[in-house]
């Protein structure tokens, strides 16, 4: 990378910019960036927290975040502290998140800079569209994803700990790296322990929608594998009911109208289709004495580039 890029991102001497992994839009000042850097010991990730919107919009959202929906603060220093604490909580409970680099990294801002290991791999949305992954490999990843969710949701309920649940995940929040599925982006969390069960429902609804959007034709096969490993089918029925009624899971009854207007969920047919397929799959299990129904063959669909691939 050029010296201009290094200066632009205020990278301390002795560190090289390898690539920009993510950055927020400019305009708010103190732009947030995620960078892959390299020093003499190896590669690591810098997440530098900043404003993602104008200062005025940030203050308005801060009020809503804290006092209306029960989220943590969205101010940069607070988000950095929250993510550090949440990563430590997930590690302590045995759930896979990026750790610190296995070597020293110096010269960064303790208030705004979060230093993490560099994890080689790809998001689950990318992995599921790969032409060179077999059907068996993809379904095995869905199985591992469901196993991890079942364990984490169980622990969250046991502890009444909303920080063990994503704010609103997609397949982009899960990174496949060899045998690891690494959970990413935990800078905003909910803080109201009374919402723990509802947050688990919301996390599941968001993931089902993300699975459906990624591979619509293969969605029922994803569901079949998911239901084998995530055996709390009563919770999954609640998820389907909320998705059919609202397109998702509103957290507080009084805010449901605002939720529908803001998200436009009730008009999104994909959400209702994903919910109805989930109900069909759950009904098929009941009709088959709570066992997975037989499937004769896996379907074919098309990847985002127009190429045809199995499942």
What is the spatial order of strands in the main beta sheet? 1-2-3-4
Order of helices and strands: HEEEHHEEHHEEHHHHHEE
The percentage helix is: 40-55%
- Tell me the total number of β-strands: 9
Tell me the major beta sheet.
4 strands, antiparallel
Oligomer: single chain
Terminal-residue CA separation: 39 Å
Number of domains: 2
| Global outline | globular
Give the overall pLDDT as a whole number: 85
Radius of gyration: 21 Å
Number of helices: 10
Query: What percentage of amino acids are in beta strands?
Result: 5-15%
List the defining traits of the structure above.
single chain, four-stranded antiparallel β-sheet, disordered C terminus, 311 residues, 9 strands, 10 helices, alpha+beta, 44% helix
Task: Walk me through the structure.
With 311 residues, this protein is α+β, with helices and mostly antiparallel strands. It has two domains: 11-117; 122-310, no CATH class. It has helices spanning 3-8, 55-67, 76-92, 124-128, 135-159, 196-214, 219-229, 233-246, 256-263, 269-287; strands at residues 16-23, 33-39, 42-48, 113-117, 122-123, 174-177, 180-183, 300-302, 308-310. It starts with a helix and ends with a strand.
């Amino acid at each position: 990378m050029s010296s201009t890029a290094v200066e632009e991102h205020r990278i301390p001497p002795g560190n090289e910019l390898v690539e920009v992994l993510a950055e927020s839009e400019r305009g708010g000042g103190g732009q947030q960036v995620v960078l892959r850097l390299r020093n003499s010991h190896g590669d690591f990730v810098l997440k530098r927290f900043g404003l993602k919107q104008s200062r005025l919009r940030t203050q308005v959202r801060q009020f809503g975040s804290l006092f209306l929906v029960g989220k943590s603060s969205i101010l940069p220093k607070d988000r950095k502290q929250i993510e550090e604490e949440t990563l430590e909580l997930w590690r302590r409970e045995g759930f896979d998140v990026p750790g610190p680099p296995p070597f020293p990294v110096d010269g960064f801002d303790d208030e705004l800079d979060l230093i993490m290991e560099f994890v080689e791999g790809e998001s689950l949305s990318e992995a599921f569209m790969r032409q060179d992954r077999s059907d068996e490999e993809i379904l095995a990843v869905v199985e591992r994803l469901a196993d991890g969710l079942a364990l984490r949701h169980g622990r969250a309920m046991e502890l009444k700990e909303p920080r063990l649940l994503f704010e609103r995940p997609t397949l982009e929040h899960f990174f496949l790296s060899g045998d690891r599925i690494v959970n990413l982006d935990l800078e905003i969390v909910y803080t109201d322990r009374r919402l723990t069960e509802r947050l688990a429902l919301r996390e599941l609804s968001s993931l089902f929608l993300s699975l459906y959007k990624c591979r619509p034709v293969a969605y029922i096969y994803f569901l079949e594998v998911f239901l084998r490993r995530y055996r709390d089918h009563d919770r999954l029925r609640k998820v389907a009911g909320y998705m059919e009624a609202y397109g998702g899971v509103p957290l507080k009854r009084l805010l449901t109208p605002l939720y529908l207007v803001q998200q436009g969920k009730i008009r999104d047919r994909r959400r209702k289709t994903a919910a109805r397929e989930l109900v069909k799959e759950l009904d098929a299990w009941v009709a088959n004495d709570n066992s997975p129904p037989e499937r004769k063959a896996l379907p074919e669909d098309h990847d985002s580039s127009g190429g045809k691939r199995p499942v």
